[in-house]
Amino acid sequence: MSFLDKLNPQQRAAVTAGNGPVLVVAGPGSGKTRVLTQRIAYLIAEGGGRPGPAREAPPPAPWQILAVTFTNKAAKEMQERVKKLLPDQATEGIMLGTFHSICARILRREAEHLPIESNFVIFDADDQERIVKNVIRELKINEKLYRPASVHASISRAKNELIGADDYPTLTYRDEVVKRVYADYQKRLVASNAVDFDDILVYTARLLQDNPSVRDKYAQRFRHVLVDEFQDTNLAQYALVKELSSFNKNIFCVGDPDQCFPTGTKIQTPNGQKRIETLKKGDMVLAASGRGSTLSCRVTHIGKRNFKSDLVRIVTRTGRIIKATPNHIVFSRLGMRSGLHYVYLMYRKDKGYRIGIASHARSDGTRLKVGLQVRSNQENATKMWVLKVCPNRNEAHYWESYFSINYRIPTSVFHVRGRRMRMSQEYIDRLFNEIDTDTNANQLMTDLGMDLQFPHYIPQGTYRNIVNLRYFGDGRVTEESPWHAHRVDLWSSEPNLAKELKAVGYNPRIRSRNNWRVGVNRLQYHDIQEAAQKLSEAANGAEIVTGAFLVDKGKAPIASKFSLMPASHLHPSMMIAIEQDGKIIEDEIVEVSQEPYNGTVYDFEVENLHNYIANGMVVHNSIYAWRGADYRNIHRFEQDFPDAQTILLEQNYRSRQNILDAAMGVIDRARNRRKKKLFSDRGEGEKIFFYEAPDDYAEASFVVDSIAQLVASRQFEPGDCAVMYRTNAMSRLIEEAFLQARLPYRLVGAQRFYGRREVKDIIAFLRLIHNPADEASLDRIINVPPRGIGEKTLTTLHMVARQNEMQPGAVLIDLARGDQSPHWKSFTGRAALPLSDFGGLLATWRIAAQTLNVPELFDRVVKDLNFKEYIDDQSEEGEDRWENVVELKRLADEYSTRGLDEFLENIALISDQDTIAEGNVPTLLTLHAAKGLEFGAVFIVGLDDGIMPHSRSFDDPESMEEERRLFYVGITRAKDKLYLIRSIQRGGRGSQEETFPSRYLDDVPADLLLGKTRTGRSIRGQVPETKWQTHRSQGQPASVTPAKYRAGTRIKHPSWGEGIVLDSKIQDNDEIVDVVFESVGIKRLSANLANLKII
């Protein structure tokens, strides 16, 4: 198949992937549309989906392939691309369309199983809201308090989550109102033999889930299910594709990765700028609300992931610097600066693509216009993309020739039209017919990291039938509309289209003798999205052009409209929207460059306005929850299809064969799973190293020492190494081992151990017992667990303390005497009682501390507070929080013969050593957080029964299978080197408990392992030497040679006399020592050459 020859290795791997579930992670410009369409062609032409050369089954017939996407336009384009690759008859019968169109077809065929007839009607947004309004009025509900649009939005969200009216959760009175309206609303739909847009998905999902015979009929028919834009699916859509692929298990999903900003990005909030990594769900951020204004909005979701690639770095004329992943959506528009030149890619539907040059700003004889606008009018172009902005015409001609020759895209104009040309129209048409400019333009944009979905310029005109979606398009603001509402318009001069739209409920308004328009206003973001989509579909798939009115028009006749585009599309001279003194104004880009990055990136979902301000620049939030998209669907996919291949189009990920074999050994033991062989083209690779440490301290030391050796021997960069564990609590000893080695690290998906809330709370209680004058600790835990002490009461407590020249802790303890305390009357009765109770508790603890040791006092505090019940809500997160407390208790057990002051001092010293960093450093993370990531060398620790699998899963077969899948995920994160590690004893040095090897280790083929056997009784190979060690545990590998010189060692130099070692490290088989001498100060020396003596 010739079309495979034009794919890069990653694209080819996705198109030709074997049978079974496949998740293709593909950012803009990486060729995801090409992959999906060519996957369809590959399946039809060759059968596809086979791991080996032997045919397992004949190629699927077209009618056995289902491909779903979100818009009719996308489905139509996909179908056209497939037809270009194969003969017409080969593609007849493919079921290719939107979720809603495909589900509607299924519902009409299977109406006998539904509460509606097959001739049901579909109510549009206005119909739906009208019914909700009538229900609210008839139930005598206050329409001002419970606006129909808001109530309907809640009903829609519930349907997207497959929550029916009977099951709608009622946590507040508003929930009760929504539930009542929901139930009545649904009854009226059924009585009208109607469905809303959400019902089309919900009815189909329930039909397949509740009727096995119906499900099996479709699941057996569709041998392959392909899903575009998977990241945008909601729960109902995910349930649909899961059921439809339940028989053959051949589900192929393509989606964008998160679009994000790096650590350190400053986000504008009502209280000033905050670093992006410090914000949490529920925090308020500043957002553009249209026409130069801003509003505070709540963060409703935070997304973060690991990112190792180039960021786009943008510098503006006012000095702002913004860094973002290339695919993050921003607001920008073309500038007009004389003397500059564009090198552009132009598309015309009947011709294809061409390369050309245009002036930055150009006059059409009446006024100055963007050069692309004039050029597009001359050639009736459909779309244009800026490839380069050049300071002079010479450079522009260079890039025009470069792109044209390298990518075989003509520079010829599309038509002669009165020009004196060397080539007639006949030969121009022949040129564009004989050159595959579609494929070549796709390759050009992929190589530039750009996306054809985001043109820089689209010509307007009534003859084009374009749906204009304009955020903040309404110039008015009202009490009910605190931000500028959004607007959708379609202008046209076609009378037949006007009739078609009128027939389906639209009201075209005549604007002049030759043209008319349809316009819709909506306040809510998701409502205007839906309105634009429906208008587009009603107008025969009209193009949707999206823009935003972010700045005030000032003295200009109209406000500037900003387009939405990925950061990779930005060029110098383009204009962006920035925030200054609470207003949104324009700024010019003066520099765009690439910058390597390896670390965590973040993004938000922001309620209502769906934008925020990052380093001063207005950016779109890119989680796309407006569709009801559920970011958890990626996790559901990985859980439901644990053996899925994940293919990253931006990076070729292939584990070594030994690692794949180990992974398959584990997952093949899963229940109800057909065994399958995975192949790697990267060779067998090294054996998997297995190590049993004497205790958990030695386990942590071994990991850090091994990473140090891998880095020192230049086998891996620090950032290529990862340490994975089952629960967050297990990070404590590993973090401490890194701290003692003075090595930086980073945590993914968690706070460092001593920064976790529950850990800090318990430490604060102990600090307060030790020192009642500790105001910081008192303020932290005075209402933990909640005991009715609010901010006002706390402020009063501090005020009373200052007035009496006392510490707040002393006042609190004195209040334990009740009304006998002189401070009692300073508080209201409601405030005084909880203060008195807590003061009595603190006084009791202080007396107990005189006789109890540290672990006993720890237990007493936790018991008196009912702290386990407070933090462990029986969710997995609650159990993890409790395990952090148990881990802190293990540390406390080591201080049974030492004092509380020493315990607190050592914790303070450890937690103060902040070595968490971004960039090229090892990663510490849980196995849950590892999904979707990859590393050169992976260390999986804690492989003991009770940890992996977790003890809470022992009695639940499904949970045990999930634990197995989790171990499988961890193994498959390793590309080149894998370490499996357990501890013979665990629990800290205070009370060691013997452990047993994880039962899943028995599933790893023994011939793949190197090192100690699972019973610890023999050695297959030698433990690798480490260059240095970081812990004085007795459980180090025998071959580990400790550094000779340690901090604090007194030495003598032949010339400079006595000194004290400050630090030492191993480098190139030598020990490099920093020493402070009384005679010459600090010197850095080579131990091999300096002839140092320890004294």
Describe the overall structure.
- With 1095 residues, this protein is α/β, with parallel strands linked by helices.
- It is built from 33 helices and 44 strands.
- Strands 8, 11, 12, 13, 14, 20, 21, 22, 23, 24, 25, 26 and 27 form a 13-stranded mixed sheet that branches. A seven-stranded parallel sheet has the order 33-34-32-35-36-31-39. It has a six-stranded parallel sheet with strand order 3-2-6-7-1-30, sandwiched between helices.
- Strand 9 and strand 10 (272-275) form a beta hairpin.
Write the topology of this structure.
Blueprint: H1 2-5, H2 9-15, E1 22-25, H3 32-46, E2 65-69, H4 72-85, H5 88-91, E3 95-98, H6 99-109, E4 121-122, H7 125-138, H8 148-160, H9 173-191, E5 194-195, H10 197-210, H11 212-221, E6 224-227, H12 235-244, E7 251-255, E8 261-262, E9 266-269, E10 272-275, E11 284-290, E12 293-316, E13 321-324, E14 329-333, E15 341-348, E16 352-359, E17 361-363, E18 368-370, H13 371-379, E19 383-390, H14 393-407, H15 425-434, H16 437-447, E20 467-471, E21 486-492, H17 495-503, E22 509-510, E23 516-522, H18 525-538, E24 544-548, E25 562-566, E26 575-580, E27 583-606, E28 611-614, E29 617-620, H19 633-640, E30 645-648, H20 657-667, E31 688-693, H21 696-712, E32 721-725, H22 731-740, E33 746-747, H23 757-770, H24 775-781, H25 791-803, H26 808-814, H27 829-848, H28 854-865, H29 867-871, H30 876-893, H31 900-911, E34 923-926, E35 935-940, H32 957-971, E36 974-983, E37 985-986, E38 993-994, E39 1009-1011, E40 1050-1053, E41 1057-1067, E42 1070-1077, E43 1081-1086, H33 1087-1090, E44 1093-1094
Parallel strand pairs: 1-7, 1-30, 2-3, 2-6, 4-5, 6-7, 20-24, 31-36, 31-39, 32-34, 32-35, 33-34, 35-36
Antiparallel strand pairs: 8-27, 9-10, 11-12, 12-13, 12-27, 14-25, 14-26, 15-16, 15-19, 17-18, 20-21, 21-23, 22-23, 24-25, 26-27, 28-29, 37-38, 40-41, 40-44, 41-42, 42-43
Helix pairs in contact: 2-3, 3-4, 6-10, 7-8, 7-9, 8-9, 10-11, 10-12, 20-32, 21-22, 23-24, 25-26, 26-27, 28-30
